[in-house]
Amino acid sequence: MNKRRMKARTFFSILLVSSTVPFYGQTELTGPVTQAEVLERCPEWRPVVAAYQPKPEVIEKLRALAREVHVDVFLGTWCSDSKTRVSEYFKVLEMADTPLIQTSYLAVPEDKTKRAAFYQGRDILKIPTFLIFLDGKEKGRIIEAPAKSVEEDLVAIIER
Q1: Whole-number Å distance between alpha carbons of 42 and 37
Q2: How far is CA 8 from CA 12, 115, 133, in A?
Q3: For the residues 145-159, what does the mean pLDDT come to?
Q4: pTM as predicted
């Protein structure tokens, strides 16, 4: 292989590795994001949302909420646990269809040395982490993987 072709191949290899859009189509989002942005930029999450079947009796409990719940979700678009758990949460919200569950999403970088600025002193150790607030106070967390399911753990925290 001649030097010119080798330099070109090296340049494109570096470009691919340093790009914010990895070769396989995944995109690392950072900062405040919406559900729509995540699903647009990470289309591989859509089949997970579509396939998830939350427990109907638990969804009914969420529909019957009497007060507002706020959930802060810390996720990584590069993280397989986020892909699974946050996608399940998307489906739960879709099925519950209640304005009383308000959610904020914050995407954090894969590079652990850059995450502290995104956590803002919230003691986040694993991704994803769901912080559940009632009346402005943290009521509980779902960290990385739920004990039962996203919807069951959410209801259990709300009902404490």
Answers
A1: 8
A2: 6, 33, 52
A3: 97
A4: 0.82
